[in-house]
């Protein structure tokens, strides 16, 4: 009886040691992803991209877009993260607009592209006559 208990205890110790080794070898996926995402946000914020409220009279939406786009290019942001990083700098009216825009998108379309975001942002925050004037200016 003593040998059976002793053998079972040895097997249990071996099993637990094996489990601990495996746990130490593979970091949890969610922690790696969260660390990666937070480091990308920190990298973006170090470039001091401007904040856009959408309700301040002298805010220039085109200047905001250009500044944020430049920061994203400098940090070589990936296509699937550019919109989320840009949205991090939207506050107040602009932040609410973004949340609504995101909810209205079809989930099957995948993450929004910069082009989709830019088009929707300009349609919402830049009057049509200003967009048309800008378009003719570059022709």
TrEMBL record:
Residues 85-138 form the Retrotransposon gag domain. Residues 20-40 are annotated as: Disordered. Residues 29-40 have a biased composition (Low complexity). It holds the Pfam family Retrotrans_gag. InterPro entries: Retrotrans_gag_dom. It comes from the Eukaryota. This is Uncharacterized protein LOC104211289. It comes from Nicotiana sylvestris. The lineage of its organism: Eukaryota, Viridiplantae, Streptophyta, Embryophyta, Tracheophyta.
